[in-house]
Every structure is written in structure tokens, then in C-alpha cells.
Amino acid sequence: MSNESVQRIKIALGLLLGLAIGAVCRLLSIPSPAPPVLPGALLVVVMTLGYIAADRWFTTRAAHSRHLCGGPDGSIKGQAKQP
Amino acid sequence: MSDNADAAFIRGHITRLDRSQPEVEAVAVKDGGFVAVGATGFHLGPQPQGFNTSSRHAQHRKTTRCALPLRMEIAMTDLFMALVLGLGIGVGCRWFDLPLPAPPKLVGALLGVAMTLGFMGADYALRSTT
Q1: Looking at the partner chain, which of B90, B100, B116 has a beta carbon nearest the beta carbon of A41?
Q2: A47 → chain B, closest CA residue
Q3: Inter-chain residue contact B89 with A15, CB threshold 8 Å
Q4: Local confidence pLDDT in tens for the 130 residues of chain B
Q5: Is B68 helix (H, G, I), strand (E, B) or coil?
Q6: B122: chain A residues, CB-CB within 8 Å
Q7: Cα distance between residue B114 and residue A11, in whole Å
């Protein structure tokens, strides 16, 4: 199995784990680490999309504060992190 | 205030454009216009034709013609403005090289969405069982 396939499977497993975490948080009445309503989650997504779009098309300078950004970045074990 | 009202709708959940009083429980109607709005207990005058908005017919009218479209329109406008603002925050953070208050990669953001969907799904399941 290629490295890319393994990464995709891991990402899919991560998303399933996220679903399970959200469901368990609601079932056990534990505060969720993610927004409890969809518009809140979509806000996070559009912020990320804006950041990615600007990074790809609008800016030419290197991003020195990327490692300070909030939330999980989706990196998996063994995947090189960007500085 | 509504001494000669033709009809009164009470015990409802009515949304108005007036921000000082955005929601009321009752309205009185005369000649096709509203003559009074307010709480269910306001004075309706002598023998108006009363409709309890909790009834099935009134609930249908309220939902399909009045409350739902207006509420959805406001909610969709607010959501659209929030999404545009979020997009602007993301672009601005990258442009000025500031730390983003969100994951810098799409997979990380989708992890949050997955957790939210799991939370909402479990919430829906719990509500439907009770």
C-alpha cells in the first residue's frame, strides 16, 4: 500500500474518531472540544480556507507564525511539519 | 387599543421586524391590518374572533407564512456575513503573518466539523428518543 493511501486512511479514521468524540461528548454531557452547532464549525472551516487561499495565491512572504495557529492541523505521525 | 378588532391571534410565537419588540405572543387584526400586538394578556376588546395560534391551522399559517421565512432570512443573512468575516479573518491572518485562531490545514478544520456533526447527531438521536 502506498504512503499516500495510508495517509488517506489515517485521515478518514481521524474524521471517524472526531464523529465518535462529538457523539460521546453529547451522550455523556461532556463539553465538546468543537463548536456544538454547524455554523460555528463552518466558521472555522472558512477561516482555514481563507488562510490557505491567501497562502497559495495572494502572498509571497513565508509564513513564520504558522506553528502558532490554533486547533489541530491534521498532521499525522511521521508527516513532516512545516516550519 | 383593540376595542373593535376583527380577530385576535393569541398564545403564538410571532416574529416582527421591530427590533425593540422582535417577538410577541398575540396580535389583533382589523380591516386587514394589525391594530395591536403584545403579550397574550393584552386587552382584546369585546368579542373579537379569536384564534389560538397553538391550534393546528394557526400553527401552519404561522410557520409557513410568517415566522419561518423571516427567521430563516435573518439567520441566513447573519450566517453569510459571519462566513464572509471568517474568510476575511483567514486571509488577513495569512497576509499579515498572524497566528490564525483556527487550524492552518483543512484536515484539522474538518476534524472540528466531524466532532460537531457527531455532537449534533447524538443530540438529534437523544431528542427523538425522548
Answers
A1: B116
A2: B90
A3: no
A4: 445 677 877 778 888 887 777 888 888 888 878 888 877 655 555 444 555 555 544 444 444 444 456 667 777 888 899 999 999 999 999 888 888 888 888 888 999 999 999 999 999 999 888 7
A5: helix
A6: 22-27
A7: 12
- On whether any CB of chain B is under 8 Å from the CB of A21, the answer is yes
Q: Do B112 and A72 touch (CB under 8 A)?
A: yes
Quote the minimal CA–CA distance from B128 to chain A in Å.
13
Q: Are the beta carbons of A37 and B116 closer than 8 angstroms? A: yes
pTM exceeds 0.80, yes or no? no
| Long-range CB pairs of A53-60, under 8 A, 24+ apart, other chains included | A53/B90, A53/B91, A54/B90, A54/B91, A54/B93, A54/B94, A54/B95, A55/B94, A58/B91, A58/B94, A58/B95, A59/B94, A59/B95
> ipTM of this predicted complex?
0.81
DSSP category for residue A31: P
Residue whose C-alpha is closest to residue B114's, from A44, A65, A53, A6? A44
Helix-then-strand count for chain A, H and E: 2, 0
Assess A41–B contact: CB distance below 8 Å, yes or no: yes
